Amino acid sequence: MLLENKTAIIYGAGGAIGSALATGFAAEGASCHLVGRTAATLDATAEKIRADGGRAETAVVDALDAAAVNDHADAVVRESGGIDISVNVITQDAVFGSLVDISVPDFANSMAELMTSQLITTKAAARHMIARESGVILFFGGSDHANKVPGLGNVQISFDAVEGLRRQWACELGPHGIRVVTLLTGGIPETFPDIPETEPARQGIIDGTLLGRAATLSDVGDVAAFVASDRARSITGTQINISCGACGD
Fold it and tell me: Are 79 and 128 in contact (CB under 8 A)?
């Protein structure tokens, strides 16, 4: 197994992406700590993992509460000896629309929430990983500089901001043997509500790929497990493109 004897913390594990990541890690042998604000969704993910023979524990923690995040990370380390993998897929309440029409406070508050969460959770993991001189920190979403879709508000801007954070973490943590990687996706249709109104967006994602299909949640988990494993030990400071060709070079 790729992640046998590894310990992973997944923030936002109750959501579709977080659940896919946790499932992928657990399938490869990792002990997964599922973190979020809603016990019911975390428990559902944990039960699925355990039913498949994996290991999962849950914790209700607000990723905007630095003290709570650090206390949880410390508890994981006391229990398991360290943190090998950390990933935060918690998203903010995105603001859609034309930038000229968006409220400045709405835009700023949304961005601040996202970046604060990412900074808090990464700092918590990095503190322990530096002590061990090893670890993998994953980000999700990625930055597509060719994107020219109007009306996205701060959505693509948020991805770009997180990428800036990822680049800085990669250069600062690299000397400590810690890898920092982003999974770049052009969108996962499975995460959209299965209602007629979302069909054009889901089909648009598929039509924009080179393979005629979009990445699935299973793909997300499988690729993340590989990237987090020692098989990918030479990969850091970059994006891994899982967009099926939608995001080109």
Answer: no
* Averaged pLDDT, 129-138: 98
- Alpha carbon of residue 113 to chain centroid: 15
Question: Parallel, antiparallel, or unpaired: how do β-strands 85-88 and 7-11 relate?
Answer: parallel
Q: Per-residue confidence at 27, pLDDT binned at 50, 70, 90?
A: very high
Distances (CA, A) of 23 to 17, 49, 74, 87, 118: 10, 6, 23, 13, 21
Cβ within 8 Å of residue 226, ≥6 positions away? 2, 232
Higher pLDDT, 213 or 91: 213
User: So what's the pLDDT on residue 148?
Assistant: 66
104 within 8 A of 160, measured Cβ to Cβ: no
* Distance from C-alpha of 33 to C-alpha of 50, rounded to nearest angstrom: 12
Residue at 83: amino acid letter: I
Main-chain dihedrals φ then ψ at residue 141, nearest 5 degrees: 125, -65
- Per CATH, the architecture of 7-241 is what? 3-Layer(aba) Sandwich (3.40)
Rounded to an integer, what is the distance from CA 65 to the centroid of its chain? Answer: 18
Count CB neighbours of 19 within 10 A.
26
pLDDT of residue 147: 66
Residue 163 — very low, low, confident or very high, per pLDDT cuts 50/70/90? Answer: very high
Query: What's the pLDDT band for 185 if we cut at 50, 70, 90?
Result: confident
**How far separated are the first and last CA of the chain, in Å rounded?**
32
Residue 111, C-beta contacts closer than 8 angstroms, at least 6 positions apart: 92, 154, 157, 158, 161
Q: Are the C-beta atoms of residues 182 and 239 closer than 8 Å to each other?
A: yes
Domain ranges of the chain: 7-241
